[in-house]
Amino acid sequence: MSKDADKPGALTHFDAQGQAQMVDVTEKAVTRRVAVAEGCIVMAAETATLIRTGSARKGDVLGVARLAAIQAAKRTDLLIPLCHQVPLSGLDVAWEFVAPERLRCTVTAHTRYSTGVEMEALTAVGLGLLTVYDMCKAADRGMVIDGIRLLHKEGGRSGNWDRA
């Protein structure tokens, strides 16, 4: 591990020579870890109606997107090269229209492990929203995915963090 790895703000995924590395979490304590992430997809009013009424041609958009989000979280280590394979204890996926044409996905990931679950929560949000896009693109290719971000994390050496 880089000699600067314990310094605040240090990029721990690089060794002293600047080479990419997987962070060694062997000596880190196993603790309860939680991460909450969100993102939105903006769509045409007609598309929102298809989702709300369950009349999209491909079926239950939010049900399928929920499963995609869960599957993505479970496979984050296969998608992001330096991520650890984290044993998830639970994953909550919530969908909410926060405006008539703006659908928000919020994911809460839980584990007891030696590293956090921020990437799992963020990956789940991204793939959930991409699945909504995929299932509705025949009706609306102009959808926009935005605002994917971490809202909260707890546990571990760095403690809790909340988006201001």
| SSE arrangement, N to C | EHHHEEHEE
Count of domain modules: 1
CATH topology: Alpha-Beta Plaits
Distance between the termini: 31 Å
> How would you describe the shape?
elongated
- How are the strands ordered across the major sheet? 2-3-1-4-5
Derived structural class: alpha+beta
| Main sheet attributes: strand count, strand direction, barrel closure | 5 strands, antiparallel
Describe this structure in words.
Helix content is 28%, strand content 29%. The chain is of the alpha+beta class and 164 residues long. It has a single domain, classed as Alpha-Beta Plaits. A five-stranded antiparallel beta sheet has the order 2-3-1-4-5, with helices on one face. A hairpin with a 6-residue loop joins strand 4 and strand 5. Helix 2 packs antiparallel against helix 4. The model is unreliable at 1-5 (pLDDT under 50).
Summed up, what is this model?
The chain has 4 helices and 5 strands. The chain has helices at residues 45-53, 61-74, 76-79, 118-136; strands at 31-42, 90-99, 102-113, 144-154, 161-162. A hairpin with a 6-residue loop joins strand 4 (144-154) and strand 5 (161-162).
Primary descriptors:
single chain; 164 residues; alpha+beta; Alpha-Beta Plaits; five-stranded antiparallel β-sheet; 29% strand; elongated
How are the elements arranged and paired?
Layout: E1 31-42, H1 45-53, H2 61-74, H3 76-79, E2 90-99, E3 102-113, H4 118-136, E4 144-154, E5 161-162
Antiparallel strand pairs: 1-3, 1-4, 2-3, 4-5
Helix pairs in contact: 2-4
